[in-house]
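Review form for a predicted model. The reviewer records the input and the model, then writes brief findings.
Reviewer: anonymous (R2)
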Amino acid sequence: MSYLQWLLGTSAAFVLVESLFPWRKEQHLLRPGWLRDAGFVALNGHFFSVLTAGLAGAVALTATRALHFLGLQLEGSPVARWPFFGQFLLFLVLADFLQWCIHNLLHRAPWLWTFHKVHHSITTMDWIGNWRFHWAEILVYKSLQWLPLAWLNASPEAVFAVAVVTTVWGDFNHANLDVGLGAMGYVFNNPRMHLWHHDQSSEGGVAKNFGIVLSLWDYLFGTAFWPRDRSPERVGYPGIEEMPHSFPGQVLWPITRQRAAVAARAESSP
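Model under review:
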């Protein structure tokens, strides 16, 4: 199965499941903004993922050669000799922890938060929200994860399997499904917990629930917040009014934001 076939099949499955078992029953499948968000699936899931895969491969090859020149070998890890499931499990846990750290950083570093605002401008949560993010985030995630994950030297099959699980779980977290996983919610992320990550209020702090697959990191490091008896009143972020509604407007963000800020400073200066 090709990557495109897998992506289309996964998308169709979530559309079907959300239609049959919606959590918020008043939320329509073709809700406002669905066409814009479908554009993000095409951009981030099809075009940009293929483009960055080629660029990442070239950069990784150059970086590997540079490390070899310095006497640092990426092939020395014994993980490559492990059975598939062992490689998959270790790669998943390490990759998920790195993604938790990077996601945390996206919220705490003002410059990165500007990009991440595109994702948090979601006001209607469903599976497709997993793909609604600024393309610059792909560069951030790939750059900061590369060296630790490359050092594992896991098989391509294990790496691909982890990528599939992470993507499907991201769709699941954003889906309009009333699933909290019970006691397993303390280990695995889920739609009910992740909805609080998108809470527009400051209840529980403005930075909470950074987990992708595992919620375990949030409980270990004190960033978990999940009132299990209710849902947030609104999702988004404070000041969401600044975000353009159109697909081109959000793709070009924060370039247009920076230009507007420069123009405003020029007008206010004597």
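Findings: The chain has one domain: 33-256.
Further findings: The chain has ten helices and no strands.
Recommendation: see findings above.
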